[in-house]
Inverse folding.
């Protein structure tokens, strides 16, 4: 698996963000039974940076905590059966890895929400990566039942890594 993590900020954490992205992403893919090696791009930015991305790509001019840009169009959540005609769009021709998508994370919001929710920055960071990974695997939370499924999966991923609300 190839993980590209770009930190556009000067923020420092008590954990290594790149290592945590890799651990959470791998646990998420294992939870979803992904049969492929994947490529994942992650940008760590600040509130203004994520606001720019949100405005440019979603037409929403406000900050958010995390944005997910899936590359795979799943018909059903985490159904990794990919048709032959889509292979050229979904796989890196050089590595054969599935181009899963991109995550953009606001480190400002990680810090703010950790305080607001009363848990560690590591837990908040990991939660947002797990949440975004599920979006990249085709999950959504527009309806209550979908939100419940995502919440359960996020908690299972984090619990499996021993990352709790402390």
């Amino acid at each position: 698996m190839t993980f590209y993590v770009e930190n556009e900020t000067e923020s420092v954490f008590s954990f290594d963000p790149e290592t945590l992205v890799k651990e959470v992403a791998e646990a998420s893919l294992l939870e979803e039974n992904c049969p492929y090696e994947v490529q994942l791009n992650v940008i760590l930015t600040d509130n203004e940076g994520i606001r720019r991305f949100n405005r440019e790509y979603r037409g929403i001019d406000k900050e958010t905590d995390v944005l997910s840009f899936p590359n795979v169009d799943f018909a059903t959540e985490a159904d990794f059966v990919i048709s032959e005609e889509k292979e050229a769009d979904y796989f890196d021709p050089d590595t054969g890895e599935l181009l899963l998508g991109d995550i953009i994370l606001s480190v400002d919001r990680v810090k703010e929400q950790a305080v607001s929710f009363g848990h560690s920055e590591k837990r908040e960071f990991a939660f947002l990566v797990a949440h975004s990974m599920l979006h990249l695997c085709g999950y959504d939370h527009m309806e209550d039942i979908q939100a419940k499924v995502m919440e359960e999966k996020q908690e299972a991923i984090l619990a499996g890594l021993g990352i709790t609300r402390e």
